[in-house]
Amino acid sequence: EVRRRSERAGRFGAGNADGTVAKPLSQAALSITTYSGGNITKEDLYTAEPIVGTCENLEKSYFRLTSAPDPATVRPPHVLRKALDRALAMWREGKATYFYMQDQMKGMRQDLTVQHVKTELTVEVYEAHARMALEYGDVVDMNQCLSRLMDLYRSVPEEPSTSCRDEFYACRVLYEATVGNRGSFAMSPALRSAYMTAVARLRETRGCGTTSVEILHAMDSIRALRSGDYVRYVRLLRSAPHLSRKLLERKDVIESMRFTAAQAITAAYRPNVDLECVAMALGFADDDDDDDD
Hints:
- The protein has helices at residues 2-10, 27-30, 42-47, 77-92, 98-114, 120-136, 139-155, 165-180, 189-207, 213-227, 230-239, 242-248, 251-269, 275-281, 284-292.
- Mean pLDDT is 81; it is low at 18-37.
- It has 15 helices and no strands.
- The protein is mainly alpha-helical.
């Protein structure tokens, strides 16, 4: 059994993205009790004894755990900090594809989880992965990161000088309204929960003498979407922060609002409607400007 599991672990390499073959796991790591189905769940990782990592590699691929990880393959927080800085630099400079970055970010998340690290570094890793996923259009990974961030925000002290939490509270609300509701914009339980969390955050920031522009913008956007107010929607889309804009301009969202707007305009101004005015009202002029850029 030990030999079989060692061979299985070796299929994934040493965690390096170059695919080199790994050393067999130590007897101690292999002898730890396995979990049902041969896979370790997130709940198992959160409740098991924390691992103290010793790996110094900045580059490490993600692979699903089938047994307790070997500490020699887990990177400690100070190495993960360097790995995150490296990944962010590569992403900004366009030196890596999204799929490579996804692999690297998941590897960092796993190393943090098995070591039970819940610090500002953990928050930064999940925020970085959420941004990358949203920019690429990977709403599945983005949702995973947002869900984890909502938990981390409750337990990790905030660093006011570097915090961008309001941005992700706003994204959570817009995600539930657009992707989570599959374009219906109804006040589902998930959207209501995200909305109330954002309201609580807004009250918190006001108590500190500041106002969250991102959250206020998200709330205005929700009202515009649910009421079918396409004029306000187009105006808010133009002024949306980067991550919020990515959600508001999703194809299913913008097409739904444009269809609603087209029906209202043709009903109000028929039989003659100026095509240029309609295009401007529906936000097509903005699309042309983006194409020119």
